[in-house]
Amino acid sequence: MAGRSGGGHRLGCVPGQVKTEAVVLRSMRYGEADRILHLYTPHRGRIGAIAKGVRRSRSRFGGRLEPFFRIEAELHEGRGELMTVTGAQTVDAHGRLRGDARAIDAAARACDAVGRLFETGEPHPGVFNLLCRQLALLDAQASSQEPRAAGRAGSLSFRLKLLLSAGLAPQLGACANCGEPEHLVGFSGAAGGVVCAACEAGSFPLSEEAHEFMGEALGKPLAEAPAAGERTLAQVERAVAVTLEHHAHVQLMPAFAAA
Ligand SMILES: [Zn+2]
């Protein structure tokens, strides 16, 4: 079937109709009763869409177009920049997450990071799956004794995996500048990873714990994200930030709300 690269599933043969799974990243009021949505999809990347009449009490969309909803969306693609939402079924509402302020905050930061780093229509199904896993974890751990995914370590593990999906994973196995495998003492955004004592100019000091945290966070599933102390996590966050600034020219909001 002819179609744009990365096209979603077509509905029958109706031209312009697109059916796709999506996560609602953002939802902005528009006009009297409409909303403009940012949706993240597995095969069409980030989509801008308008949902008409969604803020009326009898809207057929109900509350399904709120942030963090995972939906099966039906969209109409016209000539404009925005698609029009014509239908939405809930795949996962993440209802528990909504009752927990920390989980809501972490979900908002995760959605914001995906929307900023992957803002085009380029397909990244791995990013979609990663975001769905993070939202599901936040939902499962909401209001629990140990909401690990909502903590700073959980948020940073998620960001490191996003870097990996964007092709920006920091080099951790040897000096990113000269290849030296030992005496790795710093992190350099320009070099794209850890650096040795001889190459540390322009880098900032990185502890062994922070180095280890990054390796584990990249290697383990999100549900098994490592834990670490605040000083270690501050170094990890700085490493993520300089990598993004240097290689993607993107600045994200802090990974975690200061208490
Ligand atoms: Zn070196």
Topology at a glance:
Elements: E1 9-10, E2 17-30, E3 34-41, E4 45-51, E5 70-76, E6 83-92, H1 101-117, H2 125-141, H3 152-165, E7 184-188, E8 193-196, E9 204-205, H4 208-219, H5 230-248
Helix pairs in contact: 1-2, 1-3, 2-3, 3-5, 4-5
Give an overview in words.
- This protein has 259 residues and is α+β, with helices and mostly antiparallel strands.
- The chain is built from five helices and nine strands; from the N terminus they run E-E-E-E-E-E-H-H-H-E-E-E-H-H.
- A five-stranded mixed barrel has the order 2-3-4-6-5.
- Helix 1 runs antiparallel to helix 2 and helix 2 (125-141) runs antiparallel to helix 3.
- The longest helix has 19 residues, at 230-248.
- The chain starts with 8 loop residues before the first strand and ends in an 11-residue tail after the last helix.
- The model is unreliable at 1-7 (pLDDT under 50).
- Zinc ion binds next to strand 8.
- Zinc ion is lined by residues 175, 177-178, 180, 195-196, 198-199.
Brief digest:
This protein has 259 residues and is α+β, with helices and mostly antiparallel strands. The chain is built from five helices and nine strands; from the N terminus they run E-E-E-E-E-E-H-H-H-E-E-E-H-H.
**Main sheet specs:** 5 strands, mixed, barrel
SS class: alpha+beta
The H/E string reads EEEEEEHHHEEEHH
- The share of residues in extended strands comes to 15-25%
| Helical coverage, percent range | 25-40%
Q: Could you say which small molecules are bound to this protein? A: zinc ion
Total helical elements: 5
Mean pLDDT: 92
Low-confidence stretches: 1-7
Total beta-strand segments: 9
Across the major sheet, the strand order is: 2-3-4-6-5
The coarse silhouette is elongated
Radius of gyration: 20 Å
CA(first)-CA(last) distance: 52 Å
